[in-house]
Amino acid sequence: MRVKGGTDDQRKVFYTGLYHALIHPNLVNDVNGEYPLMERSGEAGVTEGDRYTVFSLWDTYRNVHQLLTLVYPERQVEMVRSMIGIYDEWGWMPKWELYGRETFTMEGDPAIPVITDTWLKGLRGFDIDKAYGAFLKSATTPGEQNPLRPDIDPYVERGYIPLGFYSKDLAGDASVSHALEYYVADHALSLLAADLGRPEDAALFRA
């Protein structure tokens, strides 16, 4: 990428920021294609393309992946394929994956806006139907069986997560931020459903 205009210092700031934005996600596969399978200690898979890791999606769904869709779309598509690969191996989309482990850091269901944005920008080359099925799973599975949305039950029943759901003394309560993240994910899911010709799902997740 080359930019014109500005001062030398401004261009240094730009390229430094771009460098930092491209540090993660990063490749995890070896030169022979082997990589650690998701949540399987000591087991390796083999990828035909690139396999990425360090999906700190709560952070990157807001900026990094949008940047990648615009300036490095082929890498973004490989990252989406990696996320779908994680779903194939683990049964859930990543939230904050780190070298084959889900850390469950931060909140929300951030794979949904990342992949929806990629699809709606016209990028292809990945299984959107499989991704959509994964999204429906995390957006509808009851809380006791749902590692991505453990507080989904009151969210579905009330449209929000009540104060004190996590702690009776309210220490570290994150009910508001959890609900806000689910609103973002469900709005993105409604947009994707509409684009895929599923109007009933679009209406459900837009409500």
UniProtKB/TrEMBL annotation:
GO terms for cellular component: cytosol. InterPro entries: 6-hairpin_glycosidase_sf, GH-type_carb-bd, Glyco_hydro_92, PNGase. One of its GO terms (molecular function) is peptide-N4-(N-acetyl-beta-glucosaminyl)asparagine amidase activity. Residues 2-206 form the Glycosyl hydrolase family domain. It holds the Pfam family Glyco_hydro_92. GO terms for biological process: carbohydrate metabolic process; glycoprotein catabolic process. This is Alpha-1,2-mannosidase family protein. It comes from human gut metagenome.
